[in-house]
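Quick log. Single chain, no ligands specified.
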Amino acid sequence: MKFGAVPVGGAAGSLLAHSVKQGELVLRKGHRLLATDIAHLVAAGVTSVVVAQLEPDDVHEDEAARRLAEALAGAQVDCGAATTGRANLFARRAGLVRIDVDRIHAINGVHESLTVATLPDYEPVVEGQMLATVKVIPYAAPRDALEPVLGLAQGAEGAISVAPYRGLGVGLVLTRLPQTRASVLAKMRGSVEKRLAPLAAQLRAERIVSHDAAAIADAVADVAALPGIDAVLVSGIAATVDRADVVPAGIAAAGGILLHAGMPVDPGNLLLLASLPRADSRCPVVGIPTCARSPKLNGFDYVLRRLAAGLEVGAWDIMRMGVGGLLGEIPTRPMPRDER
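-> predicted structure:
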């Protein structure tokens, strides 16, 4: 692509690089100059204009943006029309956006003219929300840069997709001590229900039991066996601080497999992840950290969102949540992180 100032008489067919406003004459940048435009420019006293002149090996910005956006779009993703070198991608349904981070980095590393900006991986999105934008920086992209970028973008699965929420059915087990106030249990129940609502998930069963392993085991097994239950949440009245603590002991006694105790997300460090085998599937079991009584974002949200979108969550998934895992403090926590 050639770029620079040229005499008006030789600018026909070129793309105007910068808008021209001369009296009543207004020509927008990116406009392909026609013979009539040249006559108007001459009449307005304009002698030269800055233009982009495409060469045979150049691909117009809109075509390049469109082709790259279409190559990136995966499941549940729609592409908007390409204009001014930009094409946006949108969520077809509510859920979690999935970004193939390595492929996006590779695409952005090929040539400065071709750029892709996305939401973070696993970000919750609503229907119609923008997920990414493809922007061609100049007025054209070199074909020898676009072709390898398209090769990186195309694959068995789109580099940008949405895992839609699937109507998760949840069972909740709450434990209590003799002195536990009903309001404490109600606060956790209400917090869970508020988290479920935007995820198209529903609380379908609840059990309140004493804070001992045997009672928890019976409740977890009972709730997991109910029809329509896809995951079981266990909220201990006391925080789980070890794999041998009351809540994990109860889950194990119910036949559950403890996958991971703790997580590198704060608040939310004391989350417990387990799995309960069933006849034809495995039921995820999550020990909720006590900080989840607060509606503020914590590590439990990260796990619950993935379950609601039908995504597998294992120990390695938990361990990879540390970068970006330092969340806003919850002032009501008994031991705030910044106390000295």
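The chain has three domains: 2-53, 58-164, 169-319.
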